Amino acid sequence: MEIKRLHHPLAAEFKTTEPIVLALGFFDGVHRGHQAVIREAAAEAKKRGIKCAVMTFDPHPSMVLSKVKKTVKYLTPLAQKGDEMAKLGVDILYVTRFTSHFSSLLPEEFVQQYISELGAVHVVAGFDYSYGKFGAGKMEQLAEYGNGQFEVTTVGKLSDMNDKVSSTVIRRYLNEGDMEAVTKLLGRPYETKGTVIHGDKRGRTIGFPTANILTDHDLMLPPIGVYATRILVNGVCYESMTSVGYNITFKDEKILSTEVYILDFNDQIYGEEVIIEWHKYFRPELKFNGIEGLVEQLKLDEINTRDFFNGQSKDN
């Protein structure tokens, strides 16, 4: 998949007459609703024998439009978003820099200066997609603004678990630690990517050596607690249990850490980039009076982790 970064005003080098099918959206999470939009675009592109493209934005529009300082934690940072889209058959990913000037475009200006200039002959987006200044442009107006230059497909609402499948709903379940619900709405386990760094190395002294993971600050983590996870290391996936917390049994520092105990694993992996799949929340972080109590709890966590994955294997 080719990634092209756009900045307003659109540079001449990106203006083309080569036809594409273009999917529109921010697509944080690339969840099942997003997948429906992208698959529709990919199918239309295949039918026409042309390339499938997606336009997304960076940074999150709310960071630019908010009148106060705002940070956003992403379900899928840009690189991961691209990886998921490539799996769905996207040929080109347009990453449009979301700036004050770009956000000031009227709906018809956005359509003419971007969608048309990029060569779109068919545009696909979700029913609630909006565009242009103040999000005034709606899907029912898109074909009109296009002046017959492209066709439009509007993908309807996808619902599950008595709610719309959306990034907002997924964030809510993630903040609650309901990883089963997150998995169902994403259509895959929630993943975080990070680098293995040196920690206190206390775990190895009590029989539970952990890999400390440094995660990008703009990536959403599940809430504090202990989880059944899988970790991808050098292309191999291992069952694991992961703690998100502050090591309150040993110290009072307020530095959040992510520590992974990899089952049946004995290797040095400092500096490796790993991916954690989050499957099941077990318990909150607990403070113990001594190491003995902590070790007993960790043994129970390991049993619960193995039982969880053994149960998954039987279900499959």
From TrEMBL:
Its EC number is 2.7.1.26, 2.7.7.2. It is an enzyme of class 2 (transferase). It catalyses: riboflavin + ATP = FMN + ADP + H(+); FMN + ATP + H(+) = FAD + diphosphate. InterPro entries: FAD_synthase, Riboflavin_kinase, Riboflavin_kinase_bac, Riboflavin_kinase_bac/euk, Riboflavin_kinase_dom_sf, Rossmann-like_a/b/a_fold. GO terms for biological process: FAD biosynthetic process; FMN biosynthetic process; riboflavin biosynthetic process. Pfam families: FAD_syn (PF06574), Flavokinase (PF01687). Keywords: ATP-binding, FAD, Flavoprotein, FMN, Kinase, Multifunctional enzyme, Nucleotide-binding, Nucleotidyltransferase, Transferase. Residues 185-310 form the Riboflavin kinase domain. Pathway: Cofactor biosynthesis; FAD biosynthesis; FAD from FMN: step 1/1; Cofactor biosynthesis; FMN biosynthesis; FMN from riboflavin (ATP route): step 1/1. One of its GO terms (molecular function) is FMN adenylyltransferase activity. Belongs to the ribF family. PANTHER family: RIBOFLAVIN KINASE, RIBOFLAVIN KINASE/FMN ADENYLYLTRANSFERASE. This is Riboflavin biosynthesis protein.
